[in-house]
Amino acid sequence: MSVLNGKKVLLGVTAGIAAYKTANLVRLFIKSGAEVKVVMTPASKDFVTPLTLSTLSKNPVNSTFYDSEDENELWNNHVELGLWADLMIIAPATANTLSKMTNGTCNNLLLATYLSAKCPVYFAPAMDLDMYKHPSTKTSFDKLQSFGNIMIPSTSGELASGLVGEGRMAEPEDIIDFIEKDIVSKLPLRGKKVLITAGPTYEAIDPVRFIGNHSSGKMGFEIAKTAANLGAEVFLVSGPSHQSVKHSFIKRIDVKSAQEMYEACHKYYNDVDVAILSAAVADYRPKNVASQKIKKKEAALSIELEPTQDILKSLGEIKKNQLLVGFALETNNEEENAKSKIKRKNLDMIVLNSLRDKGAGFATDTNKITIIDVDFSKKEFALKSKKEVSKDIINEIIQKLNA
After folding, report:
1. In 207, 272, 375, 393, which residue has its Cα 20 to 30 A from 189's Cα atom?
2. What average pLDDT does the segment 272-290 reach?
3. Is position 379 annotated in a ligand binding site?
4. Is 341 annotated as belonging to a binding site?
């Protein structure tokens, strides 16, 4: 999954021959999972039609403040467009538009939207060689970047005039790649490796039966997605779960038993910066596993159980510089049990939730948590979706990493 997935992208198109490339650029943004809206300068419609871009973006394309032929038409709100976007890109960015952006000239909807944008703004210059080399253009490049705008460099090649040199707008694939890399470089968990466990474990009784629990894995998977979206390389060790995830930063390792999860965690633990153990690991397993299906009989069946290895405690015992986060799902004496777990297992923090809280626990889409620190300071959160809860957890971890 691209880091552009779910992003709101505002594409500004100006009047350069490279405008024909914007059709493919819109398509690639959509393919990356972004939502796209397009604003055009009036003159750019001579190079690519609004119909093409509206069809590809699945959104109306605006080029004027209002439709002069429709007296009932509402104005196109440039402020609303500028605030809507997570990022704005002007491509192609002609010498004319770049100069206006530099000087705050505001004589069309695109420029008004640019001046209203609160998000990162990228620009991809496109012009002929002599224009590209002109000192005034260089001044525009420097000033726009000093304002915080991000330049996507032009490439060299054959230009519309027949000259060969700098000034070609970067190809759509390269623009997407540039923006993705720029976003990743600024993410708070970039360069961090995170181990996350999720779901239940199944402990075999015989070839067809097992001891397990009701964990769905939703919480762990949401934590994995949030961490990956913030730049982390994630190792997701999952017990049996119907949850799915597609993200280029997430490596999923599927296991069944507590022993398999133990081995997987120890395989990756030494190389990670953070370990978040949200899985509901079985505390006991059958001491003897039948090789054949146990037949039903009238007499009662007794199964001798033995403890599984305590994964969280074992990681706490070998912890070096890792930030170790545990989970506690309790039914009584919640806070006391969670604090005891912090000390016994050498944790840096624990995420506590109680089955007594409505909407919390297994197989729900919501959760209500309290995060308790190693010094027993605590922070309580309201009932939220597990996606939002995952953000609260990761934000607390980021604060600890930056402390």
Report:
1. 375
2. 96
3. no
4. yes
Does residue 218 have a known ligand-binding role? no
> Crossing angle for the helix pair 386-402 and 218-229, nearest 10 degrees?
50
Among 213, 337, 346, 395, the active-site one is 213
What does the pLDDT look like over 31-73, one tens digit per residue?
999 999 999 999 999 999 999 999 999 999 998 876 655 554 5
Q: Is 327 annotated as a binding residue?
A: yes
Question: Among 59-63, 120-124, 161-165, 286-290, where is mean pLDDT lowest?
Answer: 161-165
pLDDT per residue over 220-271, tens digit each? 999 999 999 999 999 999 999 999 998 889 999 999 999 999 999 999 999 9
Give the integer Cα–Cα distance in Å for 99 and 134: 12
**CB contact at 8 A, 257 and 299:** no
Q: Which of 215, 197, 176 is nearest to 89 (CA)?
A: 176
Burial of residue 191 (CB within 10 Å: 0-12, 13-18, 19+) is exposed
Query: Cβ distance 284 to 211 under 8 Å?
Result: yes
**Residue entry with tokens 């490596």:** 251
Catalytic residue check, 333: no
- Any known ligand binding at 348? no
Q: Which residue has the tokens 């039903």?
A: 296
Whether the full predicted model's pTM is greater than 0.70, yes or no, is: yes
Is residue 66 within 8 A of residue 48, CB to CB? The reply is no
Kindly report the backbone phi and psi dihedral angles of residue 164, in degrees, each rounded to the nearest multiple of 5, phi listed first. -120, 125
Q: In degrees to the nearest 10, what's the CA dihedral of 300, 301, 302, 305?
A: -150
Asked, as a colleague might, if the bond just before 207 is cis with ω within 30 of 0, I would say no
User: Which stretches does DSSP call E strand in 180-295?
Assistant: 193-198, 203-204, 210-211, 233-238, 250-254, 274-277, 284-286
Give the other-Cβ count within 10 Å of 317's Cβ. 10
> Tokens at residue 125, please?
């210059």
